[in-house]
Design a protein that fits this description.
Distance between the termini: 14 Å
Helix content: over 70%
Largest sheet: 2 strands, antiparallel
Strand order of the largest sheet: 1-2
Radius of gyration: 21 Å
Length: 212
């Protein structure tokens, strides 16, 4: 590696950081919605059910948006890092798949179950940055997040009047789930930053040895 190649690697790192910062800005308003809904849920006890449903909807919208942003970052970052995705991985990132019907190729939506969407969005985000990360999905936090989406599904597809009830326990489960997700996001960014930094440092060391 020569100095120009090293400078290109540093520039790539800067561009990746800029891409991530800009994309993640879109999550800010949704975070604010969820936090405000949680505040009213805690204080407005007379309208507890209303705010319980708002909290659940805001939280799930926030999470879905966050996973979508991760997938968009992965697609754009791969153009910078020259990382290749498999056909199946690209289908997951674009949430579209190709099928052949009557001899013709057409596209159809490809939506993963919540748990798989979380796992793949994190994994492919890291892969696009030439790093590796798999969220810890063995604990209570991951299950809490999946349970929260099950409650949201019940709200969106109610079978009877009792289906739209949200208990305090459901909101507490949602809070446990988002706490887990926030921790995993922090771990993801830390891991990717560390691997990118180590790679740049290693290439700089090689460059310096060649100069010596």
């Amino acid at each position: 590696m020569n100095r120009t190649e090293h400078q290109d690697l540093l520039k790539q790192g800067e561009e990746l950081n800029k891409l991530i910062r800009q994309k993640m800005l879109t999550i800010g308003p949704l975070d604010a919605d969820y936090n405000l809904a949680g505040k009213y849920w805690r204080n407005d006890t007379q309208n507890r059910q209303f705010w319980s449903r708002v909290v659940l909807r805001c939280l799930c919208a926030d999470i879905e948006a966050r996973l979508y942003v991760f997938r968009r970052i992965a697609l754009e970052a791969a153009n910078l890092t020259k990382i290749s995705f498999t056909k199946q991985e690209r289908e997951t990132l674009n949430e579209m798949r190709e099928i052949v019907e009557n001899g013709k190729v057409r596209t159809k939506p490809k939506w993963l179950p919540t748990g798989d969407s979380i796992k793949e969005s994190f994994r492919l985000f890291a892969k696009a940055l030439d790093a590796s990360y798999n969220p810890d999905c063995n604990g209570k936090g991951f299950r809490a997040l999946c349970d929260t989406f099950a409650v949201r599904h019940r709200l969106m597809h109610p079978k009877d009047v009792f289906a739209v009830e949200v208990r305090d326990k459901d909101v507490q489960t949602a809070e446990e789930g988002i706490h887990w997700l926030n921790q995993q996001c922090e771990n993801l960014f830390s891991q990717c930053h560390a691997e990118i930094g180590a790679r740049i440092a290693h290439q700089l060391e090689i460059l310096q040895k060649k100069k010596g």
